[in-house]
Amino acid sequence: MSAERRLSLNTMTTKRLTLREAVEAAAAAGLEAIGPWRDRVAEVGLDIASKLVHDNGLRVSSLCRGGFLTGYDEDAALVDNRRAIEEAATLGTRELVLVVGGVPDRDLAAARQRVVQRLEKLVPYAVDHGVRLALEPLHPVFCADRAVISTIGLALALAAPYPAEAVGVVVDTFHVWWDPQLAEGIAAAGEQDRISSYQVCDWLVPMAADPLVSRGMMGDGVIDFGAITAMVRAAGYDGDVEVEIFNEEVWATDPDVVIDTMKQRYRDLVAPSLTAG
Amino acid sequence: MSAERRLSLNTMTTKRLTLREAVEAAAAAGLEAIGPWRDRVAEVGLDIASKLVHDNGLRVSSLCRGGFLTGYDEDAALVDNRRAIEEAATLGTRELVLVVGGVPDRDLAAARQRVVQRLEKLVPYAVDHGVRLALEPLHPVFCADRAVISTIGLALALAAPYPAEAVGVVVDTFHVWWDPQLAEGIAAAGEQDRISSYQVCDWLVPMAADPLVSRGMMGDGVIDFGAITAMVRAAGYDGDVEVEIFNEEVWATDPDVVIDTMKQRYRDLVAPSLTAG
Description:
Two copies of one chain form a homodimer.
Chain A: E1 7-10, H1 19-28, E2 33-35, H2 38-44, H3 46-55, E3 59-60, E4 63-67, H4 74-91, E5 95-99, H5 108-128, E6 132-135, H6 152-159, E7 167-172, H7 173-176, H8 182-191, E8 195-200, E9 202-203, E10 215-216, H9 225-234, E11 241-243, H10 248-252, H11 255-275
Parallel strand pairs in A: 1-2, 1-11, 2-3, 4-5, 5-6, 6-7, 7-8, 8-11
Antiparallel strand pairs in A: 9-10
């Protein structure tokens, strides 16, 4: 599949659009894939969401997101994640992105252990539904409050007990660009056939006051998309490339302009390294 | 040396005090060590600073800081770092903390390579002066603008070509607490006799709008000081423990109160794990 055809709009990038609007905007822009968030799906209902996406000829590159497995209430976490697995299956995507949760107290090791235990309970359900649990390492700035998985290396270690079809990892440039072991991590993930999703957005300098919304359009920050994309390509990944941007300025911009800019930056900064070599 | 005697006041924790005031406050509080920043030293002049510290019976646990080796102007970086080495020698500390600098463009690999090249030029000068270059891994949130060394593992890799007396690493809880390879990194640093400094402060949730000043007093955040201190102790480190806090609220508090709180939290949260086992 050509690089052009692999670009996917994550619905967070055009946050103010409903799912219907995002789907129609993506299709009108010539995109072939979309990565919906669950709240946008829930607003229209799962069945309508699925119909909307497929009637517009789009693939679902991934579903964002399940996870939050580190809290004290195991039952609530399992119930919600089983529902997310069902939603992914209904939407026809194999990849359910998991943001695993932070440290509710001061015991990081115990929080990571709860991820291990709860993955064990979720994997069979995911496999039964043909869905892969895609562990997303988040930037260490989010370790306390969002994800105790901070590196591809740790995500792979947690995935190791399971087959590649059951547990994968997400490579998101914003979260992993700083990692001294990035090249090894991506290569290992590729070798194990565990790259569930490749997501791109930039690291802005200076950061926004809230790091959560400090993600920028490719080219607006310090990330070398050519270098990281080449690692992902060399690792054998041939799936969709999602653009997922949390940024107040982007959210305030006309979504059609955002999508145009996204396409242009993708063409200039990402696509050449997806096919070169 | 008892745990009590190893507590050191980094002058940044009592930012508003001059060096003389900080030295006198530390001595009055019964501390035996201080970790000065170079700007506080420069204000009174190097010779007076040295006399002040030693007349008050304090050790200098480390000098903060040299570094910023990743810019394009190599000469300026080398000149400033040679001066910092001389200052450390005059102050009678073996440990010069280096914050190595960020990414001035989009080429992280090249920035790291400049650290390698410039270390090579600085090490002989440091060794001649009996000073160790203490590489400080900073939290990855600072990779773009302050330090391209984000893990103890990378710091050790950069230190590897040199003897342990020439290049060490700093273990600062705020910067490394999230690292899935923390235990291995601290153990390896200890085995190589490369732990230059152990610095403690907490990771606050939520963060301050500027991550630079989001460091908290031990006990105010999510870090498990018992667990990390036990790793440092098991690694054989028997040097001073510096408290270095960047925090607007701490800076606005009466410095004597800050020092009292620091002593109490150190006694409760850090000291027991320095001696147990």
